Amino acid sequence: xxxxxxKECDNNQTTxxxxxxxxxxxxxxxxxxxxxxxxFCETCKEFIxxxxxxxxxxxxxxxxxxxxxKNEMPISGKMKKDPCTEMCSVHPxxxxxxxxxxxxxxxxxxxxxxxxxxxxxxLVNDVSDNYDTSEEFVQIKKKIETxxxxxxxxxxxxVNNIKxxxxxxxKIIKDIYIFRQExxxxxxxxxxxxLKRIDQLTSKQVSQLGHMQREFxxxxxxxxxxxxxxxxxxxxxxxxxxxxxxxxxxxEACQNSTEALASKCEIEIFDFVxxxxxxxxxxxxxxFGIINKKKQKLRTHSKKSMTDVQRLLLKxxxxxxxxxxxxxxxxxxxxxxxxxxxxxxxxxxxxLKLLNVEDNELTCILKTDGKPWDVTAINLxxxxxxxxxTGKILFVNKSKGISKSHSIKVRHDCRGIDYxxxxxxxxxxxxxxxxLLDMKGKLMNEFDIEKHCPWPYYIASCNDDNESFVVSNVxxxxxxxxxxxxKVKNKIKSNGLKSPRQLVMTHDGxxxxxxxxISDRLIMVTPNTREVHPIAVKGVKSPLCFAIxxxxxxxxxxxxxxxxxxxxxxx
Length: 571
What we know:
Elements: H1 2-21, H2 26-30, E1 39-41, E2 46-48, H3 50-58, E3 67-69, E4 98-100, E5 105-107, H4 109-115, E6 121-123, H5 124-127, H6 135-232, H7 237-264, H8 276-283, E7 311-317, E8 331-338, E9 341-346, E10 351-356, E11 361-367, E12 372-379, E13 382-387, E14 392-398, E15 402-409, E16 414-420, E17 423-428, E18 433-437, E19 443-448, E20 456-461, E21 468-473, E22 478-483, E23 488-493, E24 500-505, E25 511-515, E26 521-525, E27 532-536, E28 543-548, E29 554-559, E30 564-570
C-alpha cells in the first residue's frame, strides 16, 4: 500500500511536470526563447516563467495582478498569445478586458462595476475569437479608409482654398490698382479738359482786347504825328493852318473811335467751381471702394471620375417659368455659380434667371437687350454672357442677385464662350470660326473652322493654357478638338453624339456632352483616348443643357420635353 501510494504521488507529480513542460513562458517565447512557465497571470492572461514572474511582481502596473501557480494554472495552453495591454483612460492602472454588449463599449473592471453593473458584460478574451474576419471589423476598416480619404480630400481642398484665397487677394489688389489708374486717368483727362476750356475762353477774350489795344496804338501814333507836324510848322502860318485843320478832322474821328472802343473795353470773369461729388469724396475722406464679402460653403474638389459614379434623381423643379415671362422658356445654358445658386440662360424670354436650388425659388430675373445663349464664369462675382443677335458679350455682376456691368462689341452670330487665364474663347457661325479675345474685346487670335465644324454652338477650353479647344458641331454627330492655331487635333465621331450641344470639361480632362437627340443619357468623352461612353440619367427625355458642381457631386439637367430641371446626386 505504501508503495502504491507513493507510486500514485509520483504519477501525479509526473503528470503535472509533463503538463508544465508543454506550456512555455509567453513573453519569452515572443523573444524567441523556450523557457518553461511556472505561473499564469489571470489579469494579463499570460503564462510566465520564474524570472518574468519576479519582474511582474516588482512593476507598479502589474504587482497587484492575480497570479495562478502550479496546479491552479490552466491545463490548456491554448490561451491567446496577444493579451490586451490597453490601459483604461479613466483608471490608468487598469487594463481594458471587459466588453459591454448593451452599450458596445470596452472598459476596465472598475468601469464596469461603476457604470455597467446592470449590463450584459463579457470578457474581451471570450468574445474576440475570429474578430479579425468578422463583418463588423471589415466595415470598421472600410469606414476608416473612407474617412482617411475624406480627410485627405478635405486637406487638399484646404490647400486649394488657400491658393484660391491668395489668388483672390492678388486679383483684388490688381483690381484696386486698375481702378486707381482709371481714377487717375479720369482726373487727368478732366483736368486737361478744364485747362483747355479756360484757355479757349481767355484766349478769345485776350484776342479781342489785343485788337482794341492795336487800334488805340494806331490812333496814338497818328495823333503824335499831327502833333509833331504842327510843332515843325509853327513858323509857317499857312502850312500850320492846313495841318491843324487836318488834325481837327482826325481828332473827331479818333474821339468817336475811342468812345466806341471804350464801351467794349470789358472782360468776362471766370472762376473754378469744384465738383460737389468729388469734394465730398475728398473732404469726407470717403473710400473709393469697399471689400465685399460673402460666406460661402467650402467647395470640395473631389478627384472622382465620371466613369465610375452612379446618379440618383433627388428632385425636380420648374424654374423656366415665371410670371414675368412673355414667351415659352428655352434654356440654352445653366451654370452653378455657388453652392446653392444656379444661373439660367433663358434664350426664349431674353433674360437671365437666378435660382436658389436649396429653396427651389427664383431670386432674380435680369432682362437682356439681346438673345442670351451661353455664359462663362470670369471669377466668383463676374460672368460673361453671349448675346447672339446683337453681337455683344454682356458682363454680369453677382452681388445681391445679378446686375449688368458692361458689354463689349464682337462679331455677329457669336455662340459659345469660355474663359481661361485672362482670355475669352468665343465661337461664331456663318462663317464658323473661333476667336481669342482679351477682356476688353481686343482680338488676340482667330482661326477658321468652317470646313470642319460649320455649327460650333458651344466651346470648352481643354486646359488653363488655352492650348486646345473642344467644339460641338450641333447639327452633326461630331465633336472637334482644335489646337490654338486652328489645326484639327481630334475628330470625335459617334452615333451616340446625336446633336451635341453644351460641353463641360472636368478637372481630369473628361468632356461631358449634352446631346439633345438622345434621351436618358449624357455622353462622356474620356481624356487622352477620347473614347465615347454614355452616362445614364433616368427620367430625362430630351436633355438640352446641364450644369455640374465642381466636386462632381450634383448634376442639374434641363429637360426640354416637360420644361423642368432635374437634380441628380452623383456618388
